[in-house]
Specification:
Elements: H1 3-12, E1 21-22, E2 33-34, E3 43-46, H2 53-66, E4 70-73, H3 77-87, E5 90-96, H4 104-109, H5 141-155, E6 160-166, H6 200-210, H7 224-247, E7 251-256, H8 260-267, E8 278-281, H9 294-305, E9 311-317, H10 323-335, E10 340-344, H11 351-362
Parallel strand pairs: 3-4, 3-10, 4-5, 5-6, 6-7, 7-8, 8-9, 9-10
Antiparallel strand pairs: 1-2
Bound molecules: zinc ion.
C-alpha cells in the first residue's frame, strides 16, 4: 500500500476517533500525525451582537453549514442563546477581564485597583498606547472578588458552556512588532512607562516574598523573581476562577497571546500553567511579521508546553487573509496538532472565505 492509499484508508476508518493519532510506527519512526478535519471543532469570536432571534438564526446557520460548532459573544445572550439552541451551536461567554477601559463605575469607585507603571503613573490617569488601556491589578484581592462576581452572573445562564477570559494579562510591555510603527515607537527593550505593575500592593507583597522593593531592582527586566511574581498573579486569579466555573460544571477557556514564549515576554501571561479546558491562542501571524506557515510552528510550541488534556484552537485573523490563505491556515493549524480554529471574526468573512473554509473543513484528512 503506498502512502496515499494508506492515508485514504486510515482516514475513512477514523470516524469516531476524537483527535489525531500518531502514525510514527507505521512510517518507520517518521512522525506523521493524521487529523480528520471533519472532527475539528471550530469557533468564532462575535464582536457584533445586535439583531433579533431570526437574524441570529440566519447568521448561525451559515456558521453551522461551514462546519462551526461554537460562538463567543460578549453580550445579548437573551437573544443569541435561543437562536443558537435552535441551530445547534454552543454559546461561550467572552469576558474582557483585567482591561477595564469601559468600566466607568470601577474607575470612579476604585481608582486604587488600577495598575501603576514603573514611572509611578496609574493606567487609569495615564494609559499606555490607547485611552482604554486602563487595567485592574491582579495582585489585589478585591479585584478577584469583583471578577468572580461577574463570572457568577454569566454562569446564571445555564446554557453557557464556558467562561472565556480575554485581556487576562498585563498591558503589553512590548507591542507585537508590526504594531509598533502604528504608535510610532520602537520597543527594543522594556521601557518604564509600559512596565507594570508597581502599585503599593505589588511593591509590598514582592518585598515580603523576596526582600526587595521592585522599584529598587537594578534591571527589573532581568529579574527572574519579578517575572515569576507577575506570572503568578495572573495564574492565581485564573485558577481561582477555574474552581468557581468547574464547580458549576462548566468549562474555562481563554484568548491568549500566540505562543507561551511570546505571551510571557510581551504580556507576562504564562498560560500553560492555567487550569483551562481549552486555549484559543491568537495566532495572528501578520502582527508578528510572519508568514502563514508560522501558525504551524506556533501550534507545535503550544502543544509542547500544554497538558495533553487541554484542547487548542488556533485563533485566526480573518482581515489579514484571502480565501486561499484562510483555508491554508486551517490546514497548517490542524496538521500541526490543533483541535480546530477560532475566527476573528465571522463578520470579516466574505462569500469566498466561507466557500473555501467549508471545503477544507469537510474534506477530511
Ligand atoms: Zn499592582
Amino acid at each position: 500500500m503506498d502512502r496515499k492509499t494508506f492515508l485514504k484508508y486510515t482516514s475513512s476508518t477514523l470516524a469516531g476517533v476524537a483527535s489525531g493519532f500518531n502514525l510514527s510506527k507505521a512510517f518507520g519512526g517518521q512522525k506523521v500525525r493524521l487529523r480528520n478535519h471533519k472532527l475539528s471543532k471550530n469557533w468564532a469570536w462575535i464582536t457584533e451582537t445586535e439583531g433579533s432571534v431570526d437574524d441570529w438564526k440566519y447568521r448561525l446557520e451559515k456558521l453551522k453549514k461551514a462546519g462551526f460548532d461554537a460562538i463567543l459573544p460578549q453580550k445579548n445572550f437573551d437573544t443569541i442563546i435561543p437562536a443558537a439552541e435552535k441551530v445547534g451551536i454552543e454559546v461561550h461567554a467572552w469576558l474582557v477581564s483585567l482591561q477595564r477601559g469601559s468600566d466607568t463605575e470601577a474607575q470612579q469607585k476604585h481608582p486604587e485597583w488600577f495598575m501603576v507603571n514603573r514611572k509611578g503613573q496609574s493606567s487609569l490617569s495615564d494609559p499606555a498606547y490607547v485611552d482604554y488601556y486602563k487595567w485592574f491589578c491582579p495582585s489585589r484581592k478585591p479585584v478577584h472578588e469583583y471578577l468572580r462576581e461577574e463570572v457568577s452572573e454569566l454562569l446564571a445562564y445555564t446554557e453557557i458552556k464556558s467562561i472565556h477570559l480575554d485581556y487576562i494579562r498585563y498591558p503589553d510591555v512590548i507591542l507585537p512588532i508590526s504594531l509598533q510603527p502604528k504608535y510610532d515607537i520602537v520597543q527594543d527593550k522594556e521601557y518604564s512607562q509600559y512596565d507594570y505593575c508597581y502599585c503599593s500592593v505589588c511593591r509590598q507583597r514582592f518585598k515580603e516574598q523576596y526582600g526587595t522593593d521592585p522599584l529598587e531592582l537594578k534591571d527589573p527586566a532581568q529579574s527572574r523573581e519579578w517575572k515569576l511574581y507577575r506570572y503568578n498573579q495572573v495564574t492565581t486569579l485564573v485558577n481561582k476562577i477555574a474552581l468557581d466555573v468547574h464547580e458549576q460544571n462548566r468549562l474555562l477557556t481563554a484568548a491568549v497571546f500566540p505562543t507561551p514564549d511570546i505571551a510571557r515576554t510581551l504580556v507576562r501571561q504564562n498560560w500553560p500553567d492555567w487550569d483551562l479546558d481549552a486555549v484559543l491562542p491568537m495566532m495572528y501571524h501578520n502582527f508578528y511579521d510572519k508568514g502563514l506557515s508560522w501558525i504551524a510552528e506556533a501550534v507545535k510550541e503550544a502543544r509542547n508546553e500544554l497538558p495533553k488534556t487541554t484542547a487548542l484552537y488556533s485563533g485566526l485573523f480573518v482581515p489579514a487573509m484571502d480565501e486561499k490563505e484562510l483555508a491554508q491556515a486551517f490546514e497548517y493549524a490542524m496538521d500541526a496538532g490543533a483541535d480546530g480554529i477560532s475566527l476573528f471574526t465571522d463578520t470579516a468573512m466574505k462569500g469566498k472565505h466561507w466557500k473555501n473554509l467549508r471545503r477544507v473543513i469537510q474534506k477530511g484528512s
